[in-house]
Amino acid sequence: MSTLPRSTSKGTMNPASIPGLPMFHARPVSDFDVGINSSAAWTGSLERAVGDPSLSDDEGEDDEEERGRSARALYKFEGKVEFRELNVEAGDEIEVLKEEVGDGWSLVKVEKNGEVGLLPQSYYTFTSDFMAAPDLNLPARKREASAQSITPRGSPKLEPEQLPLLPQHTGEWFPSFRHSLLGGKALNRFSSFVTSGAEEWVLKGSPTEPEVVPHSREATFSDEEEGLSNRLSRVTFGEADRHFVDVGPSWKTKVPPFRVLVHSPSKRASTLSGAYTIYNVTSLFHATGTDDDPPPGSHVRVTVQRRFSHFVVLHTALSRRLPGLALPPLPEKQYAGRFSTEFVEARRGDLERYLGRIVRHPVARYAEVLTFFLGCESETEWKKQVPYHLALPPAGPSFYAHVFHPAFNLDAEDAAEAVERFDNHTKAIGKGVQSLRNIFGQVRESRIEMSKAERLLSYSLLSLITSKPLASAPTTGISEQDDEYTGRTNGLMNQEGAWCWREGCTDCLRLTKAIQRTSETLQSVADLYDVYARRTQLATHESMKTVAHPSSLYGGVVETHRSTLSRFKIAAAEQCADEEMVARCETVLNTTMAEMDTYHTQKLEDFRSLATDHLDGEIAFYEQILSRLESARRAFDSPQYNDLARSPRQPSIYERDLEHPRLTPKALPQPCPHVFDSAPMRPVSVAIQEGVGMLFGGTSPVRSSVFGKFW
């Protein structure tokens, strides 16, 4: 039986409350970049750093002893004032007061206006790294082979004084620059090959090899008196951090699959954070350990309450601890209209699909932070343990150091062909799904039009048997003399309300009441069309986001795979092959190939579910229509038809609508946009080239901030 472990009662201390512990110890500095973090994720980090005087509302006076390093902005950045973010232009001179304040942000000061605030680390470079070179006669250098310039090995990191940099545009200047200062690493800090730690793992291996011990709460969580820094210094890699790749390559499942439901949203209020929405998150486990036909009552349920900021904590921690996986994006935060019924339901569905993708992944489903997220029922324990999970250093190369796979589990040529086919396939699926989403929107609009048509037909039948004119109805073929007749004119209806000029005509009474029932049935059919388009089909339209943009989601996997392949070929083809580097490349390739296999499995499940859900919805929809039409049809057959003459006709509830027919429905609700539906980000290589060109006197057009478009 798979159940979630309860959180321990032993909590963690606030780093700000530990005497003598600087705040920057709460998040150890890593040698690699964790990539771009969302604004929502940073908001949670900003709230946690309450003890940091550099982030307080009251700015202290400048201290000459705390002057930082000189830097220069590479790109334009438009920040948000409420998040203490700065606005800088490309080329602005800045002073970095604290390089690492959490989640890839730095505390900087703009020289031109003296403003102090936050700026992403990827948006600036230190100008002290580029020193003016004296007039030296450098010896002529022979042009090295391209392979050696791309992947240098064993080259020491020289200081600028040892090897001055000359801004040349010819020869081997750029490879020498990277060779000397970056140790062979790529300059592109946004590259997934770099940010995931794969490049550092391939070039150097894991910087530290902590002992892998069986995971336990006692080994991970210490008493409150020890402090956060002592706990982080004793972090070990347990069973949840060991990942196995089976033959395929494919991930080996360690935990049986289970379901997660996000339901019953409710609005809450807090004196500190204001109003917010809380969601119930229920995990369903099967006692039999399988998803195939579980017996009744075999589910083990664990229900917790989570708000959106809790999901941000989960996503941030997962992204840092599982850098080699293609994790789904977290829905973006919204401020306007976030308590409306439509938005809350859309957000609930997005969060449920997000958790569904997480727990379906064979590796992410047993992550420690996910177990904590789904199983911690105490709000007090949640507040105690969250700082620990957020303060854990990014896994980086250590992630790949704990991936185990069989020897000779892949072929380099097959891996190269597979990634090209996979990349083309995901791009084609992205285009096809986008077209499908647009067409499905038109299908939903057509359902609304059918609803209007059925309603108009109903009004027309009712207008026919009552001789009451229908407002806004087509008047083709109707003369002006016909307009003088109304329902009060003698001969149009008898005293029993029958559609006849004869009094006491039972045959016309039966016919009139049967046609009236048909008109009312058409009204119910029109309602079915309207509700089906607004609810059932909206849910299907929303679920299409699950399969949208696979190329963007797996772009980092593809990029890491290709970069590793190039390193693999160079390391294996040289005269003195580096077997250790080849083995590390194979580990990364096994990881990326396993991720491609995971997408293949999830694609089968997703599209099968989409098709069956749509067909089931259509069948149920048309069965309801068929049931209503059959009921209306039986009114024209005996014995029901004969029974209609026993009583006079009662006015229809829809007769009052003939003067003001309901033919203008409300706007059809549309699904919330996918995170990747925004304007595409320009290639990072272009931005890097423009930034470097600006630093060395080149000209490049200044563009708007990428973050500004999303935030």
TrEMBL record:
<feature type="compositionally biased region" description="Acidic residues">
    <location>
        <begin position="55"/>
        <end position="65"/>
    </location>
</feature>
<dbReference type="GO" id="GO:0006897">
    <property type="term" value="P:endocytosis"/>
</dbReference>
<dbReference type="InterPro" id="IPR036028">
    <property type="entry name" value="SH3-like_dom_sf"/>
</dbReference>
<dbReference type="InterPro" id="IPR027267">
    <property type="entry name" value="AH/BAR_dom_sf"/>
</dbReference>
<dbReference type="InterPro" id="IPR036871">
    <property type="entry name" value="PX_dom_sf"/>
</dbReference>
<dbReference type="GO" id="GO:0097320">
    <property type="term" value="P:plasma membrane tubulation"/>
</dbReference>
<dbReference type="InterPro" id="IPR001452">
    <property type="entry name" value="SH3_domain"/>
</dbReference>
<dbReference type="Pfam" id="PF00787">
    <property type="entry name" value="PX"/>
</dbReference>
<keyword id="KW-0728">SH3 domain</keyword>
<feature type="region of interest" description="Disordered">
    <location>
        <begin position="1"/>
        <end position="22"/>
    </location>
</feature>
<dbReference type="GO" id="GO:0005886">
    <property type="term" value="C:plasma membrane"/>
</dbReference>
<dbReference type="InterPro" id="IPR019497">
    <property type="entry name" value="Sorting_nexin_WASP-bd-dom"/>
</dbReference>
<dbReference type="GO" id="GO:0031410">
    <property type="term" value="C:cytoplasmic vesicle"/>
</dbReference>
<protein>
    <recommendedName>
        <fullName>PX domain-containing protein</fullName>
    </recommendedName>
</protein>
<dbReference type="GO" id="GO:0035091">
    <property type="term" value="F:phosphatidylinositol binding"/>
</dbReference>
<dbReference type="Pfam" id="PF14604">
    <property type="entry name" value="SH3_9"/>
</dbReference>
<dbReference type="InterPro" id="IPR001683">
    <property type="entry name" value="PX_dom"/>
</dbReference>
<dbReference type="Pfam" id="PF10456">
    <property type="entry name" value="BAR_3_WASP_bdg"/>
</dbReference>
<dbReference type="GO" id="GO:0016197">
    <property type="term" value="P:endosomal transport"/>
</dbReference>
<feature type="domain" description="PX">
    <location>
        <begin position="257"/>
        <end position="380"/>
    </location>
</feature>
<feature type="domain" description="SH3">
    <location>
        <begin position="66"/>
        <end position="129"/>
    </location>
</feature>
<feature type="region of interest" description="Disordered">
    <location>
        <begin position="45"/>
        <end position="70"/>
    </location>
</feature>
<feature type="compositionally biased region" description="Polar residues">
    <location>
        <begin position="1"/>
        <end position="15"/>
    </location>
</feature>
